[in-house]
From TrEMBL:
It comes from the Bacteria. This is M1 family aminopeptidase. It holds the Pfam family Peptidase_M1. InterPro entries: Peptidase_M1_dom (IPR014782), Peptidase_M4/M1_CTD_sf (IPR027268). It comes from Hymenobacter bucti.
Amino acid sequence: MVYLAHEISHKWWGSVHDESEWLNEAFATYSSLLYLQAGGDSTGYRIELAKRVQSAANAPAIIGFDREKAPYPLFRRVIYDKGTVILAALHARVGTEKFYAILAQTAAERVSTTAGFLAVVAQLTTPDTRQWLITELSR
């Protein structure tokens, strides 16, 4: 079910991508986890997120990641898993209402770069949250 929800979410987030692909894949992956949660499977959500947290541990930074020089398993850890963990942390930091507003504006503006996403976060949250996100993406 998670895989299908991930692929379907690519249709929704189709314009969300940049040179690193983290927005494209992390948005699709986190959307699939939110689908589990919205369907009442909070345990499944926690299990799937925990898998990604474990995979993302000690992964390189998203900002500056060179996918061309990385083996595919590392690419997945950084782009899919670490990106998803960061989105989940952003969600926890700002709350569901604000997080969904960020997602809605990201989709409405067809944001396709990390800089564009950071601009949306800055507009809808606080300078501290934007800086926090930059730090998370850079470590």
